[in-house]
Amino acid sequence: MDVMILGIAGGTGSGKTTLTNRLKEHFGEDVSVIYHDNYYKRHDNMPYEERCLLNYDHPDAFDTDLLIEHLHQLRQGQEICCPVYDYTVHNRSDKTVLVKPAPVIIVEGILIFQNPQLRDMMDIKVFVDTDADVRILRRIMRDVKKRGRSLESVVQQYLTTVKPMHEQFVEPSKRAADIIVLEGGKNQVALEMLIQRVASHLASVHLAQCQ
Question: Rounded CA gap, 2 and 206, in Å?
Fold first, then answer.
Protein backbone atom coordinates (compact mmCIF):
# COMPACT_ATOMS: atom_id res chain seq x y z
CA MET A 1 0.00 0.00 0.00
CA ASP A 2 1.23 3.48 -0.91
CA VAL A 3 1.30 5.37 2.39
CA MET A 4 1.42 9.15 2.74
CA ILE A 5 2.92 10.46 5.98
CA LEU A 6 1.69 13.94 6.85
CA GLY A 7 3.54 15.79 9.62
CA ILE A 8 1.76 18.53 11.56
CA ALA A 9 4.10 20.54 13.81
CA GLY A 10 3.93 23.85 15.67
CA GLY A 11 4.26 25.33 19.12
CA THR A 12 2.20 24.36 22.13
CA GLY A 13 -1.39 25.56 21.79
CA SER A 14 -0.94 26.50 18.14
CA GLY A 15 -3.90 24.47 16.87
CA LYS A 16 -2.13 21.31 15.68
CA THR A 17 -4.66 18.98 17.27
CA THR A 18 -7.62 20.90 15.86
CA LEU A 19 -6.20 20.64 12.36
CA THR A 20 -5.39 16.96 12.87
CA ASN A 21 -8.89 16.24 14.18
CA ARG A 22 -10.55 18.01 11.26
CA LEU A 23 -8.62 15.86 8.79
CA LYS A 24 -9.33 12.68 10.74
CA GLU A 25 -13.04 13.50 10.94
CA HIS A 26 -13.18 14.14 7.22
CA PHE A 27 -11.41 10.96 6.06
CA GLY A 28 -12.25 8.50 8.85
CA GLU A 29 -10.50 5.13 8.71
CA ASP A 30 -8.38 6.16 5.73
CA VAL A 31 -6.31 8.20 8.21
CA SER A 32 -4.43 6.99 11.29
CA VAL A 33 -2.94 9.45 13.77
CA ILE A 34 0.18 9.22 15.92
CA TYR A 35 0.97 11.85 18.56
CA HIS A 36 4.63 12.46 19.38
CA ASP A 37 3.58 13.27 22.97
CA ASN A 38 2.73 9.61 23.54
CA TYR A 39 6.39 8.79 22.97
CA TYR A 40 7.70 10.67 25.99
CA LYS A 41 10.27 8.48 27.71
CA ARG A 42 9.29 6.46 30.78
CA HIS A 43 10.53 7.56 34.19
CA ASP A 44 9.16 4.83 36.44
CA ASN A 45 12.08 5.00 38.88
CA MET A 46 11.74 8.74 39.38
CA PRO A 47 9.35 10.19 42.01
CA TYR A 48 6.50 12.43 40.86
CA GLU A 49 8.14 15.56 42.30
CA GLU A 50 11.24 15.01 40.17
CA ARG A 51 9.22 14.17 37.05
CA CYS A 52 7.47 17.53 37.42
CA LEU A 53 10.82 19.27 37.01
CA LEU A 54 11.89 17.54 33.80
CA ASN A 55 12.20 19.47 30.55
CA TYR A 56 9.44 18.01 28.39
CA ASP A 57 10.07 20.41 25.51
CA HIS A 58 13.59 19.21 24.67
CA PRO A 59 14.12 16.63 21.88
CA ASP A 60 15.79 14.27 24.36
CA ALA A 61 12.50 13.94 26.29
CA PHE A 62 11.08 11.78 23.49
CA ASP A 63 11.70 8.20 22.41
CA THR A 64 11.70 9.28 18.78
CA ASP A 65 13.52 6.13 17.69
CA LEU A 66 10.49 4.08 18.73
CA LEU A 67 8.19 6.41 16.80
CA ILE A 68 10.35 6.00 13.69
CA GLU A 69 10.26 2.22 14.10
CA HIS A 70 6.48 2.28 14.43
CA LEU A 71 6.12 4.40 11.29
CA HIS A 72 8.20 1.86 9.35
CA GLN A 73 5.91 -0.91 10.61
CA LEU A 74 2.78 0.99 9.60
CA ARG A 75 4.20 1.60 6.15
CA GLN A 76 4.74 -2.14 5.84
CA GLY A 77 1.08 -2.77 6.68
CA GLN A 78 1.63 -3.84 10.29
CA GLU A 79 -0.43 -2.76 13.30
CA ILE A 80 1.42 -1.10 16.18
CA CYS A 81 0.79 -0.80 19.92
CA CYS A 82 1.28 2.92 20.51
CA PRO A 83 2.24 3.97 24.05
CA VAL A 84 -0.07 6.28 25.99
CA TYR A 85 1.26 9.20 28.02
CA ASP A 86 -0.51 10.30 31.21
CA TYR A 87 -0.09 14.06 31.65
CA THR A 88 -1.55 14.03 35.16
CA VAL A 89 1.38 11.97 36.52
CA HIS A 90 4.08 13.12 34.05
CA ASN A 91 4.80 9.59 32.90
CA ARG A 92 3.92 7.00 30.30
CA SER A 93 1.00 4.85 31.42
CA ASP A 94 0.76 1.05 31.23
CA LYS A 95 -1.88 1.33 28.50
CA THR A 96 -1.31 1.14 24.76
CA VAL A 97 -3.50 2.03 21.80
CA LEU A 98 -3.73 -0.16 18.72
CA VAL A 99 -2.99 1.89 15.61
CA LYS A 100 -3.86 0.25 12.31
CA PRO A 101 -2.08 0.87 9.00
CA ALA A 102 -3.85 3.31 6.71
CA PRO A 103 -3.20 5.07 3.38
CA VAL A 104 -2.52 8.30 5.31
CA ILE A 105 -0.62 8.55 8.59
CA ILE A 106 -0.69 11.88 10.43
CA VAL A 107 2.19 12.51 12.84
CA GLU A 108 1.59 15.42 15.21
CA GLY A 109 3.94 17.09 17.68
CA ILE A 110 5.92 20.16 18.58
CA LEU A 111 9.31 18.71 17.60
CA ILE A 112 8.61 16.28 14.76
CA PHE A 113 10.60 18.39 12.27
CA GLN A 114 13.63 18.63 14.57
CA ASN A 115 14.78 15.04 14.02
CA PRO A 116 16.18 14.66 10.46
CA GLN A 117 15.40 10.94 10.19
CA LEU A 118 11.78 11.43 11.25
CA ARG A 119 11.41 14.54 9.13
CA ASP A 120 12.68 12.78 6.01
CA MET A 121 9.97 10.13 6.33
CA MET A 122 7.25 12.75 5.81
CA ASP A 123 5.70 13.42 2.42
CA ILE A 124 4.08 16.68 3.51
CA LYS A 125 5.27 18.85 6.39
CA VAL A 126 2.82 21.38 7.84
CA PHE A 127 3.78 23.95 10.48
CA VAL A 128 0.93 25.59 12.38
CA ASP A 129 1.97 29.15 13.22
CA THR A 130 -0.02 31.02 15.88
CA ASP A 131 0.70 34.12 17.95
CA ALA A 132 2.57 33.40 21.21
CA ASP A 133 -0.02 35.17 23.38
CA VAL A 134 -2.80 33.01 21.95
CA ARG A 135 -0.75 29.85 22.43
CA ILE A 136 0.03 30.44 26.12
CA LEU A 137 -3.60 31.25 26.90
CA ARG A 138 -4.71 28.06 25.16
CA ARG A 139 -2.08 26.07 27.05
CA ILE A 140 -3.22 27.45 30.40
CA MET A 141 -6.86 26.60 29.68
CA ARG A 142 -5.98 23.11 28.47
CA ASP A 143 -3.54 22.15 31.22
CA VAL A 144 -5.68 23.44 34.08
CA LYS A 145 -8.98 22.00 32.80
CA LYS A 146 -7.87 18.75 31.18
CA ARG A 147 -4.52 17.82 32.73
CA GLY A 148 -5.04 18.63 36.39
CA ARG A 149 -2.33 21.29 36.58
CA SER A 150 -2.34 24.40 38.73
CA LEU A 151 -2.16 27.83 37.10
CA GLU A 152 1.13 28.51 38.89
CA SER A 153 2.73 25.30 37.64
CA VAL A 154 1.65 25.96 34.04
CA VAL A 155 3.08 29.48 34.06
CA GLN A 156 6.30 28.31 35.73
CA GLN A 157 6.78 25.52 33.18
CA TYR A 158 6.08 27.88 30.30
CA LEU A 159 8.67 30.42 31.44
CA THR A 160 11.40 27.93 32.38
CA THR A 161 11.21 25.34 29.58
CA VAL A 162 8.35 25.78 27.10
CA LYS A 163 9.21 29.28 25.87
CA PRO A 164 13.02 28.85 25.68
CA MET A 165 12.70 25.43 24.03
CA HIS A 166 10.21 26.83 21.53
CA GLU A 167 12.72 29.52 20.59
CA GLN A 168 15.62 27.07 20.42
CA PHE A 169 14.02 24.08 18.68
CA VAL A 170 10.40 24.54 17.56
CA GLU A 171 10.54 27.91 15.82
CA PRO A 172 13.71 27.06 13.80
CA SER A 173 12.09 23.81 12.62
CA LYS A 174 9.52 25.91 10.76
CA ARG A 175 12.10 26.27 8.00
CA ALA A 176 11.66 22.58 7.18
CA ALA A 177 7.92 22.96 6.53
CA ASP A 178 6.37 22.65 3.10
CA ILE A 179 3.29 24.57 4.21
CA ILE A 180 2.84 27.13 7.00
CA VAL A 181 -0.72 27.36 8.28
CA LEU A 182 -1.85 30.35 10.32
CA GLU A 183 -4.30 29.63 13.15
CA GLY A 184 -4.41 25.86 12.69
CA GLY A 185 -7.78 24.19 12.16
CA LYS A 186 -9.54 27.55 12.03
CA ASN A 187 -7.84 28.33 8.72
CA GLN A 188 -10.49 27.03 6.36
CA VAL A 189 -8.54 27.77 3.19
CA ALA A 190 -5.52 25.78 4.38
CA LEU A 191 -7.75 22.96 5.63
CA GLU A 192 -9.50 22.65 2.27
CA MET A 193 -6.15 22.65 0.47
CA LEU A 194 -4.90 19.79 2.67
CA ILE A 195 -8.17 17.90 2.21
CA GLN A 196 -7.77 18.12 -1.56
CA ARG A 197 -4.17 16.88 -1.38
CA VAL A 198 -5.06 13.94 0.87
CA ALA A 199 -8.14 13.12 -1.23
CA SER A 200 -5.97 13.00 -4.36
CA HIS A 201 -3.62 10.52 -2.69
CA LEU A 202 -6.50 8.36 -1.47
CA ALA A 203 -8.06 8.33 -4.94
CA SER A 204 -4.81 7.02 -6.43
CA VAL A 205 -4.54 4.35 -3.71
CA HIS A 206 -8.12 3.18 -4.20
CA LEU A 207 -7.65 3.12 -7.98
CA ALA A 208 -4.55 0.96 -7.65
CA GLN A 209 -6.44 -1.44 -5.39
CA CYS A 210 -9.17 -1.86 -8.00
CA GLN A 211 -6.75 -2.72 -10.81
Answer: 10
- d(CA 102, CA 202) in angstroms, rounded, equals 10
CA 207 to chain centre: 30
Contact 66, 117 (CB under 8 A): no
Q: Which residues have CB under 8 Å from 170's CB, separation 6+?
A: 9, 10, 11, 57, 110, 111, 114
Q: How many residues does the chain have?
A: 211
Alpha-carbon distance of 101 to 96, in angstroms, equals 16
Alpha carbon distance 30, 115 (integer Å): 26
Give pLDDT tens digits for 79-134.
Answer: 999 999 998 888 999 999 999 999 999 999 999 999 999 999 999 999 999 887 78
